[in-house]
Structures are given as structure tokens and as C-alpha cells.
Design brief:
Blueprint (H helix, E strand, L loop, with lengths): L27 E10 L9 E3 L4 E5 L11 E5 L2 E6 L11 E6 L2 E6 L5 E3 L2 E3 L1 E3 L5 E4 L3 E9 L26 H14 L5 E4 L6 H11 L7 E5 L8 H6 L15 H5 L3 E6 L6 H7 L8 E2 L8 E2 L2 E7 L8 H4 L4 E4 L10 H15 L1 H4 L3 E4 L2 E4 L3 H9 L6 H14 L24 H10 L4 H8 L3 H10 L7
Parallel strand pairs: 13-18, 13-19, 14-15, 15-18
Antiparallel strand pairs: 1-2, 1-12, 2-4, 3-6, 4-5, 6-7, 7-10, 8-9, 8-11, 11-12, 16-17, 20-21
Length: about 475
Amino acid sequence: MRPGTGNTTSPVDSTHDGGAAEHYAPKLVPAFTLLWCIEEPHRVGECALFHGSGRSFLGRSDDALDSASFVRVRPGAIERTGALAGTTLSRRQIQVDVSDDVVEIEKVGQLALHVNGKETKRARLAPGDVVSLHKHSGMLFSMRPASLPKLAGWQAGAFGEPDRFGIVGESPAIWELRERLAFVASFDEHVLVLGESGTGKELAARAIHILSHRARGPFVDRSAATLPRELVEAEVFGNRKDYPNPGMPESDGLVGAARSGTLFLDEIGEISQPMQAAFLRVFDPGASYQRLGDPKPRKADVRFVCATNRAPGELKHDFAARFEQRVELPPLDARREDIPLLARALLLEAAARSAAAASRFVRTVGRRQEANLDAGFVTHMVQRDYPANMRDLARVLRESMAASRDFVLRAPREPEPPQTQPAPQVDEAAVRDALGRQIGNVSRAADALGISRYQLIRLMKKYGLRDAV
């Protein structure tokens, strides 16, 4: 902020502390989240926030009132980490002008400025745009909350690292998920986990179990799609020896194996409604069941966590009604700023499993291991579509490792077109109609409109329809 101008844009106050939660408001502000930084890779995930209208600058200096500082935003706290370093970076590198919902940037320093891979001197930004400084750093532009509310019951790990449940990310969407997981874990009600394929349903289920009072009990997981229809009751409830068929071993079934703990059933939407009905007898508190061939009833003492990528309305009504707690997992589209952190975690995991295949793409900076990712590759990863979410991200990394001939992971030779091109002319009425017909399912609505899921999300933001689903 230049003295005397009345400009309200300034770095976040470094004295901000845990008291933020009491004053938390979900106001969205313009933000630049660091995706890659050659000299300071440990800072990926930090962001520069811009409050109110006015002019400020991104660059090497944060000692002036009009210089924006990078921060680490976590529940109940904002840690100021200062400006980026770099001998090639000008003290004032990018001029940022904010006016209402319009954000414009201009190159004023010596490094070349790129927006979505194309060199430019000035640009008006839209959420999802990637802003890069040549051979220095790259940032994702978005609108995000200025702060996050305090989160009880969750121990935050090191910034940017997997937490103790293996969940990776610093985006508002992933912190909202962590808050929801901690909340539902505090109850003993059955939980339905919803989300697209590859969004981490098993990680969420394990977190619920570990955070619950059943943590000392067993965690039993099974894909419901693999339950044989003709033996579903034996699989679920167990059987005595030689029943119902001679030679069958005695079994406690899934319910017995998970006694005093949690039974996680993935892909629950893939089983038939008659099979869903078989579970109803053990869903209610104090319910009893019998193993096949066993006349003695047993008390069911298990918490069910079931997961599906289908709409809840596709489940049997009285089956779905038993799940009083629900958790919806965000797709990668909703947390693109986490993609470089996820890629790093996957690459380090691959290097630990197979050093010969992946260790050459890992470098040590200080005491921390970092992924050696080409800047163009990061931009490609952040802007492409991921229909299968983490499965697609892992596939992209595997294919790139196989194709790369040096020590840096690079984008494929023929990458898919970035999903930053303007969407086809789809007006607000068409978007509303598609979302209504698909009962709020964004992926199906996008298919119906003939556009990508990411393009539809951007249109929803443009028309203010995010809260309509």
C-alpha cells in the first residue's frame, strides 16, 4: 500500500493467531498459491492473499507496505513466511491490481511473466489460471477464504507433508474435509462416504476409525462389490463349521471380525438392493444377528463406514437412511493447489518402494527430500482433467517416469490440451438446467453439456451457482 493512497491491500498481519476462528467469516479473497519454486521448494502450498481493492506488488521485497507477503494458512492460525527469495527476482516483480472481483497483473520486474504457459506483460486473471515467473516460480490464482476456523481433534503435521492418516494437502477443501472427518468420528453413528473414484475413501474411513472411541478395536475393510450374492449372509454374519455346505470352515463373518471396531465397506453402491437389505438387521443400536447354522444370537457391536461414488438416491431408501452421518470427499478439481504436494508425496513413496525406478527424480534440499519436477510439467498437471482423481495423477507420474531420460520429470511429448481454454458458449440457464436434471452431479452435468468437469466448475463460479448443488 502506498502511503496516503487509502489502499487497503496489504500483507497479512503476522500477529494473527489462533483467535481467528472466533472471527472467522467465509469471505473469499484473491490468492496466489505457490505451485513450484526452484530455490525454495519447501514453500510449495504457501499463498499470498489480497484483502480489499487496491494495488500491491509481488516480488523479492516484503518490507514495504505495498508488498504482498506469502503465508501458511492453517486452521486458527496464519504464519507469515515473507517474500520469495532469488537473485533474479526483482524487488517488485508483479504489479497486482484488485478492484471488486477483477484481478489484473502486470510485469514490472525483470523476469518474464507467463500466464497458462504463454508469455505476456499484463493479464486479467480467472480462477484456475497459472502465473509463472521464468525459471523461478509458478502460482495458481484462485479465490479462497482469508482464514480457516480452529479445528479441534486434529493434530496438524508439518506443512505440506502427509498427516498421520496419509491425507495430503493445505487447500481450504482438504481442511474442510479434515474438519468433517473429526466431527463425524466423535459420534458412533454409521457413516456414508461419498466421492468420485480415486478421492481417497479408504483413507477417510481409517481416519474416522482412528479418531473415534473405537480406535482400539479392529478396522476391517472389504470391497462390497466382491461379496458373492449366493454367500453374502455367510460372508457378512459368519457360519458354523460345515454349514451351509459340508467342508465350510467356521467363520465369524465381517460383523464378527469387526466387533468393537469399524467395518469399512467400499463400493457399497455396487451391490443389489436385496443384498443391501441383508445389512439392515445389524444397523440399529443393540441389534442382534445369527451366524448361519448357529441358534445362538449375537449382539452386533460394529460401526459401519460405507463408501460409494454413486448418488445416495441410488441406494435402497431404508438402507441409505441408516447413515445419519455423511462425508463428501473433494475431487482434485476442487483442490488443484494440492496437486504438486500430492505429486511429491506419490513420488517419494515410489522412490521408497523402488529406488531404481524413482529415486533419480528426488533431490535433497537442506534436510528435506523434494520431487524434481519440470515447471512445465507442474503446470500441465495442475490444469489437466482427472476423471479418476488420484488414480489418474499416479498414472501420469508413472508414465512420465518411464518416458523421462534425465533427472527431471517432464510433461509428456503430446500433452492433453490444458483445460484453461474458454468453455463453449453455455449460458446460466443451460448450466442450471443440466445441474437440475443431474440432481447436482457435476460430472454428469458436464457430460450433458459437452464440456469438461473443470470448465463446468468455472462456469458455476462465474454464475454464482456453487451453492446451488
